[in-house]
Amino acid sequence: MGEYQGRQLASKWAKTAVLRSNPQIAPHIPPTSRYTSENLRSMLNTHGMVVVKPVRGAGGNGVIKVSKTSGGYSYSYYAKTRNFASFESMKRSLDQCKKKRAYLIQKGIYLATVGGRPIDYRVKYVKTDNGWVYRSLVGRIAKPGLFVTNICRGGTLVTAAQGIRRSIGASFVGAKKQRMRELTVLSTQLLEAKFPGIGQLGFDYGIDKSGKIWIFEVNTRPQ
């Protein structure tokens, strides 16, 4: 059964815009904006914690968690957290960290955890001669001390069922897996209509502490 390599869409912005246009999918996408000083300040005021990530990039590279704290502001980059008294000093340091790359800001989601470590899920969906098929649906538990779950950053791979059971409870396994599949099919239909020629998709899902499913990202040519 042949797999299509398919076209690659590097920009997270273009893919997010398509998904947010659908009323069934939009509620599952965290509020997202372009990285500017004004947007960062207002999103921190609104959400308290945001994730800043490159518009192009994968593997958790360059992803920074920024928080408004009782004493000012802080950000975490890999295993290191820095604290700042003012927004301006935090933003200066953050700009050096992110270098010249284009970034976006996404509302931070407090993920359900396994042993205090955040877990998210990767669904790999590929186009074959017989149509779209699932290649994998796995959970990724962050390495202790990190907030990114990527395996290349020391995350632990579990089955989706194990991850759901250990983070929010066994009674949710069937329903959450089914919902991720439904969102995957609907998202793929939208993306394929907009970007003909895609053939491999990797969906990054999170389940927050209240059990809501979020779509963080869709990768073309997923690793």
Question: Can you give a write-up of this model?
Answer:
It is a single chain. The protein is built from five helices and twelve strands. The chain is α+β, with helices and mostly antiparallel strands and 223 residues long. The strands form two sheets. The chain has a six-stranded antiparallel β-sheet, with helices on both faces. Strands 7, 8, 9, 10, 11 and 12 form a six-stranded antiparallel β-sheet that branches. Helix 4 (160-167) crosses helix 5 (173-194). It starts with 11 loop residues before the first helix and ends with a strand. 30% of the residues are buried.
Taken in chain order, the helices and strands follow as: HEHEEEEHEEEEEHHEE
Shape: globular
- The helical percent reads 25-40%
Mean pLDDT: 88
